[in-house]
Amino acid sequence: MLNGLWLGFFVVAAVAALAQWLVGGNSQIFAEMVQALFGMAKLSVEVMVLLFGTLTLWLGFLKIAEKAGLVDLLARWLAPLFARLMPDVPRGHPALGLMTLNFAANALGLDNAATPIGLKAMRALQDINPSATSASNAQILFLVLNASSLTLLPVTIFMYRLQQGAPDPTLVFLPILLATSASTLVGLISVAVVQRLPLWHPVVLAYLLPVALVLAAFMAFLATLTATAMAQVSSLLGNITLFSLVVLFVVVGALRKVPVYETFVEGAKEGFDVAKGLLPYLVAMLCAVGIFRASGALDYVLEGIRWLVSQTGMDTRFVDALPTALVKPFSGSAARAMLIETMQSQGVDSFPALVAATIQGSTETTFYVLAVYFGAVGIQRARHAVPCALLAELAGVVAAIAVCYRFFG
Question: Other CB atoms closer than 10 Å to residue 20's CB: what's the count?
């Protein structure tokens, strides 16, 4: 799957570039593609520099949590649920607690904490994977749920809107919450169908229904707040949660006689080792994405979509937000650039900008997550991970468009 996908980027980019040259008369297109190729290689290294620090920091704290027994405790509590959703993972396995911490960090918008925890979980799952190169069912479910990006507090989107002068930066909060919920639900169901997981089992419902009720109550509470209060609650809750996790890990570790400093350094070394193995995968994926964008293939896709939508008589305003949707599966930085460009060219509170912000907050960089998470453990055969993750991504985009028409149309 990854081999075909990677090759496809280059083939489509080559065809698009030839069309630009022979039909459009753009003789500079190949120079632009080469420039993009080297530019993305440079970006890969810059991303790695950030990952080195983040992974070293959080895997250090996580090692303290492991030795203090916190991860094992969480794994035992969730054992009945994961026994149904991930039957190949032994009860009480450390990966279960790590996955839960990763989901919680993602939901609260704590990206810096979520990625290293997720990589630690993926490595733990690889320890029980009978294949060295093919993704297990548990790894696929974990990756798809990661890629579906359930986010309760999209603080970064509020920040982008504030920077662009939005009078109400949190205007898209509820649309994002609804769209990201749809994405996660579709991701879970798609994997459950392929792997024949018993979602309607009483034990599974006993865990998932309370989460759904708490989420609904949280939505209702936030809907009563003013825009200023909502922004304050989002920022405060995210930062308190992040700092509380650090203090919890260190204090519980100390109480249980764990040598916290030495343990932190031990975990930090693991983070360094994980990070340095990611660069080849990042270079491969980001460079392929870079020439795909530079070739003009993305522009052709947008114009084709606009024509098809206009032929049906439907409103085409949302098409101006699709650059964010189309590049988000490949590159978070590219999607951010597309979002900001849409805000600047269309207006921060224009309909395309609101749709783009909702898409950005409710979808994930699927292929980046795929490259990082599977690359960290040497997985080369992704099996059904890519189609399930892309289906969740598509659900998030469609839901974002539909919800924005309901809220702002």
Answer: 23
